[in-house]
Design brief:
- This protein is an alpha/beta fold and 393 residues long.
- It is 42% helix and 15% strand.
- It has a seven-stranded mixed beta sheet with strand order 2-8-7-6-5-3-4, sandwiched between helices. Strands 9-10-13-12 form a four-stranded antiparallel beta sheet. A two-stranded parallel sheet has the order 1-11.
- The radius of gyration is 21 Å and the shape is globular.
- Bound molecules: pyridoxal-5'-phosphate.
- Pyridoxal-5'-phosphate (PLP) binds at residues 36, 97-99, 123, 168, 172, 200, 202, 231, 233, 239, 244.
Amino acid sequence: MSKVTPSLKAAQFTESVIREMTRLARRHNAVNLSQGFPDFPAPPEIKAAAAAAIDRDINQYAITWGSPRLREAIATDFHRRHGLAVDPETQVTVCCGSTETMMATMLGVVDPGDEVIVFEPFYENYGPDAILSGASPRFVPLREPDWTFDPDELAKAFNDNTRAIIINTPNNPTGKVFSREELERIAALCQQWDVIAITDEIYEHILYDGTVHIPLATIEGMAERTVTINSMSKIFSVTGWRVGWAISPPALAVGIRKVHDFLTVGAPAPLQEAAAFALQLPEDYYRDLAAHYAARRDRLLAVLERTGFRCYRPSGAYYIMTDISAFGFDNDVDFTRYLVQEIGVAGVPGSSFYRDPARARTKLRFCFCKRDETLDEAERRLAKLQPMARATS
Ligand SMILES: Cc1ncc(COP(=O)(O)O)c(C=O)c1O
């Protein structure tokens, strides 16, 4: 048999369905409510800070684990917001987006044969992240309508082989924000089983209805076993810049930094300077960001509900998970294809967030990080959609 093939590791997962949906949307000229990136301009002052850094010739490799200015800004921001002291010298690692941060973390702190607990539905990268690091993902369901987990089910997922648990709050795709009680339950199990918590908190500023985000690292006993991952992408509407970071105990940073070094050497140097500037923006910036997204969420919720989707109202992040039972399709993939080709609107089939596609047959995710004009056009097109369209046509 030929050895000129992809590796067995790469054969264990498919290409990203979310990114594929963006390509399909382009091909069919559809309104793209699939991949979570804003279609409006990034804040001008942040763009100016990046341009100024290039002009000042900050154009060579930064220190591998992040420019001192950015690491200082990250540590100061976390301390100011959450009251937890962070040493920028030993605890902060800057990577290329939270995507690389998660991968460097998994490769840097998890060994082949370890188990990693992942809540399901999950952001689709976590499965391949576990496989590439040689670990076995172990899934614990979050059940609608509130996307809560069964404490006994979670407890049963922990064992001597468990090395880490991945938590994403505010959550993509469900919009769930984990409560203090839930985080304390997770924290107790992590401490009981000596497990590392890896938390993806990139939507921490996108919250609705007075919901509060609690970083897991701030729960008692967790700072010394938690890797907190964040990124410029969503907070500052610059998903193409690829600047993210991990805050971790120094011992874990050693592993994360080594892997990061050999994966990418470093994140873009001038954009790190812009990130350091952005993290010092006044609180109004974050208030306005959340308020704008709240208006967009309410707008898309109303459109989708009018059209026949049953919506799970998100408390955070910028996605709406929906139930598509009313349209009478056999599964989420067929319906998504119909939606993009015939109606001209792209979403993401629910099965891309589940290990077992059967659990996602009636689910579809939309994002609303889009301009009013984009949402107007989506509304016009969705008006053509009829509940039970297929059954009656
Ligand atoms: C939960 C979650 N984590 C990570 C990412 C990727 O973020 P980044 O651009 O920082 O790599 C996304 C993007 O949609 C996401 O939703």
